[in-house]
Amino acid sequence: MKIDLIAGARPNFVKIAAILHAIKNSDKKFDYRLIHTGQHYDHNMSGSFFSDLNIPLPDITLESGSGTQARQTASIMTGYEDLVSKKRPDLCLVVGDVNSSMACAITAKKSNIKVAHVEAGIRSGDLSMPEEINRILIDSISDYFFTTSRKATDFLLNTGKSKEQVFFVGNTMIDTLRRFEADFKKPEVWDTLNLKNTQYLVLTLHRPNNVDEVSNLVKILHIIGDNSRGLPIIFPVHPRTAKILNSQKLSLKNVFFTAPLSYLEFNYLVKNSKMVITDSGGITEETTVLGIPCITLRNSTERPETVSIGTNELIGTDSENIPEYLDKLFEARWKTGGIPELWDGKSGIRILEELSRL
Ligand code: UD1
Question: Which CATH code fits 183-330?
């Protein structure tokens, strides 16, 4: 069976790495090509992940780049359609919920190519997020579903998918975290700011809800900086957020900006931090497994187990909610978390076992 493995944006590289490492270590032969859609293209959003995660360079890069939702999606679709019209795979495997995953899934399905979705069946219920629309679209047309939780599996079965199509395999993002945990490396900012274990916070923000309105974004930064009890807050700034902040003259207490960090550097920072504040989904899974307290600045999450089992608290997008949770942290009232079922570093192997039976 010929398989197209699709990756386009930062979180995709982390998930696809788990599958590539499982292929490398498998006795069986898998005939695949790795396709990079080009959605993320800066070195620190893309290239650094290939070297950090020790994965082969893409066999094909589509260079779709950025643009509006529609332009980016269209560019990935036409690029991938040209490719499959010349050389068809038997299966197109997409991971996660980014535009690249959705665009390639739809293109493959319309070319009568079977589609497999890794991280299927999770829902936030929030249709204002492009990722939620992507999840619904991908799951509605996929043939095979690999899930990170029993809840996601049950959801898919309840929507009419059959047991022969849905496989609860665990979390590929955690495979990669476990594989590289011993290799996490100090970012430059560690020495520049003389950081100490558990004596700083990490912040990431890139969702339109939090960053597109500049006054709202600046208010979040002020509130965190004013309530961190003097601890520095390290903020690796996503390009989307950087574009918005670049036009601002800011005078912030305790908040330090860096460029986006590589995978190994970012997770070094997370693993040794006192807390992470984020609006990402994947990061809440990593903090859960690393046992680091996490605040999510969103109204909903498609990863509820990070709250019910893990260390995450979902506090909404009103930044006035933040101080109450920082007090909880500093007064040592943060819940201790556990690790969700099958988040054990072997999801890639389970995916390959199922693929080899198809
Ligand atoms: C995308 C994903 C999101 C994921 C995030 C991780 C979708 C809908 N969203 O959001 O789920 O959490 O990636 O990073 O697919 N840009 C650069 N350099 C790059 C990449 C992007 O400057 O290497 C700029 C783009 O020009 C654009 C902005 O960043 O202005 C947003 O990029 P885009 O890929 O459209 O979405 P993200 O916000 O990164």
Answer: 3.40.50.2000
